[in-house]
């Protein structure tokens, strides 16, 4: 029984699985699942197709039996359901038909269904779809009861951030061969020269690769509020007083500057300031025209240029800054494939960017990053205007209660799927692998949940940018 090409479907998301079963001689249809067992073969295989339309099956080495008794038994085993099949006639006598005939089963009427084994050369469409499916893994000697793994192409893509650990030709080649689908350039770090090097390496790989193409995503920095430079990291202890100032160039043991002039106006007494998405937290005690005085709630090590959030609030900054426009022009010049736009609050930002790209005649897709509290009320219009969305869970969990993030993730994924838009889940997917060679069970479960919810992509950040593994 040649199982190299077992079946194909016109549907995009078709799951094909084969496994040995007992030698019951029957086939039936139930709940959009087609069950076929053929007891005349050296080994018995169970074919499960999670789809509503079966096009063809193929067998080269075996002639399938047909008898009246088998037909009678099969007809009794048919379950009420709806199943539309399409039949291709085989050439010559290479394959014989199963005698089960009919292509429609309704809730009130049961009838056998004809499934005709064919060779791909019998119809050009068969050959085309078989090539797209890339076939199913040959079985060889498979033990009874063990599922065989299909080699269909992975549907959930992998986005890898390129950084100091991976910005060489050797590492980009390794990432591509390991399964990277998109190379992400984080414009919050590095300069145009370093990113140009990565773009050139990815394009070099694409030119040499025969069956794999790596897309390039440019991730804008956005209106981030960050602390200033420090001569050395500061250890902040719980209960300690610490001050932020809008004056530039301040960096002492008890005070550091911020890069946002309206920081004082945006915070209020009692607000919680989160550092790096919650790695440290400080409560606002008082403020002046230039200073915000805080008490450390959760201490830690404060380094230069750390990201600051105010719980439940978003900074009153434009979503696309002057630096972002420079980076966007850099992306147009290099013909990148995607922009990931940070801190999108409304659809107007997306329309503005798309109009600019249209004026440049640039075919670049816009992915909106959902990572601020202000974006949630406008979620529907933002995603409608975009080409896809990214669930940026780090900043989203800093501005909103962290326990709400899983529900928001599911909501965003479902909304994108209902609109036919791509959706990527990001932040802390395999965070422990920055240091450790294996992920935690929680991280594996997190990725599995994102995939099962329907995410089109999983994004790695520090794991590939500066991780050890």
TrEMBL record:
Requisite cofactors: K(+); Mg(2+)
- Keyword Metal-binding part of the UniProt annotation: yes
What residue intervals traverse the membrane? none
Q: Which domain of life is it from?
A: Eukaryota
Question: Broadest EC class?
Answer: transferase
Q: In which pathway does it act?
A: Carbohydrate degradation; glycolysis; pyruvate from D-glyceraldehyde 3-phosphate: step 5/5
Designated name of the protein: Pyruvate kinase
**Organism the protein comes from:** Pisum sativum (Garden pea)
């Amino acid at each position: 029984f040649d199982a190299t090409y077992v079946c194909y479907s016109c549907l995009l998301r078709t799951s094909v699985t084969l496994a040995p079963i007992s030698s019951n001689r029957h086939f039936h249809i139930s709940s959009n699942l087609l069950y076929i067992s053929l007891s005349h073969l050296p080994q018995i295989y169970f074919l499960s197709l999670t789809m509503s339309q079966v096009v063809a099956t193929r067998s080269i080495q075996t002639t399938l039996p047909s008898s009246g008794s088998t037909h009678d038994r099969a007809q009794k085993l048919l379950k009420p359901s709806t199943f539309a099949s399409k039949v291709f006639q085989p050439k010559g006598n290479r394959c014989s038909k199963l005698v089960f005939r009919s292509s429609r089963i309704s809730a009130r009427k049961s009838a056998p269904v004809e499934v005709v084994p064919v060779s791909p050369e019998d119809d050009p469409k068969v050959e085309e779809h078989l090539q797209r499916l890339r076939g199913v893994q040959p079985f060889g000697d498979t033990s009874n009861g063990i599922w065989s793994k299909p080699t269909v192409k992975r549907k959930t893509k992998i986005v890898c951030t390129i950084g100091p650990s991976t910005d060489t030709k050797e590492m980009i080649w390794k990432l591509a061969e390991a399964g990277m689908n998109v190379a992400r350039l984080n414009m919050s770090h590095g300069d145009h020269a370093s990113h140009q090097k990565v773009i050139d390496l990815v394009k070099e790989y694409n030119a040499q690769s025969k069956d794999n193409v790596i897309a390039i995503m440019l991730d804008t920095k956005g209106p981030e509020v960050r602390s200033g430079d420090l001569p050395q990291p500061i250890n902040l202890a719980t209960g300690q007083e610490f001050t932020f100032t809008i004056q530039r160039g301040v960096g002492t043991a008890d005070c550091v500057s911020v890069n946002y002039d309206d920081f004082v106006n945006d915070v209020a007494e009692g607000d919680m300031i989160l550092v790096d998405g919650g790695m440290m937290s400080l409560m606002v005690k008082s403020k002046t025209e230039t200073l915000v005085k805080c008490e450390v709630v959760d201490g830690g090590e404060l380094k230069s240029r750390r990201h600051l959030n105010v719980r439940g609030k978003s900074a009153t900054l434009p979503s696309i800054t002057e630096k972002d426009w420079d980076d966007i022009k850099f992306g147009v010049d290099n013909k990148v494939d995607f922009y990931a736009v940070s801190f999108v609050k409304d659809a107007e930002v997306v329309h503005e960017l798309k109009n600019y790209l249209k004026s440049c005649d640039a075919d670049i897709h816009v992915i909106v990053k959902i990572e601020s509290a202000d974006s949630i009320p406008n979620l529907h219009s933002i995603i409608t205007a975009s080409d896809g969305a990214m669930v940026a869970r780090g900043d989203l969990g800093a501005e909103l209660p962290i326990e709400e993030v899983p529900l928001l993730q599911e909501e965003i994924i479902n909304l994108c799927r209902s609109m036919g838009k791509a959706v990527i889940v990001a932040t802390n997917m395999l965070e422990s692998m920055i240091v450790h060679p294996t992920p935690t069970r929680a991280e594996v479960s997190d990725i599995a949940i994102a995939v099962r919810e329907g995410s089109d992509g999983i994004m790695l950040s520090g794991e590939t940018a500066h991780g050890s593994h």
